[in-house]
């Protein structure tokens, strides 16, 4: 998903949001229940952009002619190095309808969960403002 990758690498939160379907489902590596909807997903991704440091995609895996894509990344949260993957599924309009993130190692996932937990009040406010 070239457009998504380019938007992330440019730090363009508005372009990222434009690529999300209204009914997108976001599955976090740190929370059991998925989040449904464009507003909350966009707000979460903005939060991620605030906590990830030295983020870069290192590999892209695509289903030729298909709707499934995987973007492998490396980043840092505090002093924890993280390797992860964004699994994306696009709908018939080319918008992301399913977005699942997986990260490793466990200590990195824990650092990410703590950092995102600290962001959640702001994330909730942003999602509410975008839903209105």
Can you walk through the features of this model?
The protein has 132 residues and is of the alpha+beta class. It contains four helices and six strands; from the N terminus they run ααββαββββα. The protein has helices spanning 2-10, 13-18, 38-51, 106-131, and strands at residues 20-27, 35-36, 53-62, 68-77, 80-90, 96-104. The chain has a six-stranded mixed β-sheet with strand order 2-1-6-5-4-3. Helix 3 (38-51) packs across helix 4. The longest helix has 26 residues, at 106-131. The radius of gyration is 14 Å and the shape is globular.
List the helices and strands and how they pair.
Blueprint: H1 2-10, H2 13-18, E1 20-27, E2 35-36, H3 38-51, E3 53-62, E4 68-77, E5 80-90, E6 96-104, H4 106-131
Short description:
This protein has 132 residues and is of the alpha+beta class.
- The helix-strand sequence is HHEEHEEEEH
Over all CA atoms, what is the radius of gyration? Answer: 14 Å
Please list the strands of the largest sheet in the order they lie side by side: 2-1-6-5-4-3
Query: How far apart lie the N and C ends?
Result: 29 Å
The quaternary structure here is: single chain
Globally, the shape reads: globular
What structural keywords apply?
132 residues; alpha+beta; 6-stranded mixed beta sheet; 4 helices; 6 strands; 42% helix; globular
């Amino acid at each position: 998903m070239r457009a998504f990758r380019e938007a992330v690498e440019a730090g363009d939160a508005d372009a990222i949001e434009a690529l999300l379907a209204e009914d997108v489902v976001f599955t976090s590596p740190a929370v059991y229940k998925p989040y449904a909807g464009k507003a909350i997903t966009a707000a979460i991704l903005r939060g991620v952009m605030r906590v990830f440091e030295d983020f870069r995609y290192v590999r892209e895996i695509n289903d030729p002619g298909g709707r499934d894509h995987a973007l492998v990344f490396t980043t840092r949260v505090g002093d924890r190095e993280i390797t992860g993957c964004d699994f994306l599924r696009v709908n018939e309009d080319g918008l992301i309808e399913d977005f699942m993130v997986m990260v490793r190692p466990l200590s990195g996932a824990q650092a990410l969960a703590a950092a995102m937990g600290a962001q959640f009040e702001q994330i909730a406010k942003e999602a509410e403002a975008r839903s209105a």
